Every structure is written in structure tokens, then in C-alpha cells.
């Protein structure tokens, strides 16, 4: 027996005005700059992580379009909560159910 679809994005997102992107004015043509050797060459270390990623590992999975939309609508209703926070909460709940050590925040 197929599951009943309980989520309809059209009904959930009916109070928001349509997106109207700003119109950018064309910039004047720029003069080519002379190549000047820099005293401090920019050579970012590709292994260096952003501060909020320090000590963390990436986990990735794919959702259907419907599940992805539903997740973001629910997150928006909860005050623009971050997907990162949601996933940490879900993993913590899973660890609790499996009697594993909880995620330390």
C-alpha cells in the first residue's frame, strides 16, 4: 500500500512574495593593470579547514526533492535553523537509541 503524501509544498509556501532579483548596473570597462609581483604570494594550504570545520568529518547523503523541500520548510518554520544543527540532533538521537555515547556539543 502506497503512503499518503502528507506534504504539499504549494500549500506550505503560499504566503511568501515572489523573488525579484536586483538589477545590476553594468560597470565601466577597466584598464588592464600592470603585472606587479606581490611581496606576499597567496598560496592557501588546501588541507587547512575553515574554523567551524576543525575536528569534524563530513558525512553526505542524498534526499529526494520532496524530502529536501519538506526539510527546509520545517527548518524555516523553526526560525531558520541550520541543517548542521538538525543533523547533529538526529545523530545524537540515534546514538541515544543505540545506547552509544552521546554527541558532545
Automatic annotation (TrEMBL):
Bias (Pro residues) ranges: 19-31
Region (Disordered): 12-52
Protein name: Uncharacterized protein
Source lineage: Bacteria, Pseudomonadati, Pseudomonadota, Alphaproteobacteria, Acetobacterales
